[in-house]
Amino acid sequence: xxxxxxxxxxxxxxxxxxxxxxxxxxxxxxxxxxxxxxxxxxxxxxxxxxxxxxxxxxxxxxxxxxxxxxxxxxxxxxxxxxxxxxxxxxxxxxxxxxxxxxxxxxxxxxxxxxxxxxxxxxxxxxxxxxxxxxxxxxxxxxxxxxxxxxxxxxxxxxxxxxxxxxxxxxxxxxxxxxxxxxxxxxxxxxxxxxxxxxxxxxxxxxxxxxxxxxxxxxxxxxxxxxxxxxxxxxxxxxxxxxxxxxxxxxxxxxxxxxxxxxxxxxxxxxxxxxxxxxxxxxxxxxxxxxxxxxxxxxxxxxxxxxxxxxxxxxxxxxxxxxxxxxxxxxxxxxxxxxxxxxxxxxxxx
Amino acid sequence: xxxxxxxxxxxxxxxxxxxxxxxxxxxxxxxxxxxxxxxxxxxxxxxxxxxxxxxxxxxxxxxxxxxxxxxxxxxxxxxxxxxxxxxxx
Lengths: 349, 89
Ligand code: SF4
Ligand code: SF4
Description:
The complex is a heterodimer. By secondary structure, chain A is α/β, with parallel strands linked by helices. Chain A contains 14 helices and seven strands. In chain A, strands 3-5-4-6-7 form a five-stranded mixed β-sheet, with helices on both faces. Chain B has one domain (13-81): Alpha-Beta Plaits (2-Layer Sandwich).
């Protein structure tokens, strides 16, 4: 798509370096809807915007330049935070990946940044020599090398775009709080749908198979004896395992004890299954003991496994730590699932 | 809410003799691992390090080293499997 034809472009400015599209700073329904789809994992790969130079308000040669990735959510957060300001936005081509991941993977890094500064002729556009980058780009960009290669100094702005107005008011100085990457409840909650969509991909077919087997082997448990509506225990426990690992763990992340996510997930699983047992112990006692025990084991292992999977989304887990955790926990989790499955099958025979 | 993860596993290495006290490491670290004291950087919270590499990349004198990587689970599982195979050969 042409740069000027994108939905958020409201006008085209004539500048010393040619026409520059001006962008809206109020996000519309389309932008919000787009964010919902991204969080559900629908059409995620195509959520890129055209890289290049954009304008906010009516900037001039003294207006600051903000740099971001061409992932639309990053770009939307930036332009939204610059409401009623005059500024330039330089969008790097990161293949539609966010700032943090692009910096880690190398597409938001010194080389491409310098190339883009030169290609857009920023030195002719503005009289100052400063670029403002999101702090999370720092793992890809070496500020001292950027200055050496294109003459622009790099200032690292706040981690969150929402702190930009305060950063600006503060004379482009980031406070201690702005420098920290937090992982607040809202951010954690926003990641849950995606976890569930991913879990559903294998869990739903598996549940169908279990229902089918159940109906073959024990027709009465499928509601044929008038107990319709009773959820079979395996389905109940699979669901509770997934809920504990992918919903409860992210929500209670800092309340659950333990440092390792696998431990947090296991505890969430014990908590949730404990409540389930309290509320509905008949579902457990109605099954052969080896089946109940087997599925309980699977449920707890799943909770732990899925919680560990969430380290990929978290903003404070180190690869060395995750590796250590994985080495210990993954074999145990897989063994628990295997033993649980064997117990269940033995109860069917 | 300062979140720290497992203890004593981060691969962060800092050579204080080389530090010129520019403060970049303090500025770029998203978890407040570094502090500046008497014109030199110092590691204050080693267990907070998530190995993002920002400090090492932005230190102008190369006084910091860290095994940076993507904390992505699939990538780590793959590298562990590959590592195990490589060792077995
Ligand atoms: S690697 Fe990242 S988290 Fe660790 S000390 Fe350096 S900047 Fe901080
Ligand atoms: S970035 Fe390097 S030179 Fe600058 S304060 Fe940190 S360790 Fe010292």
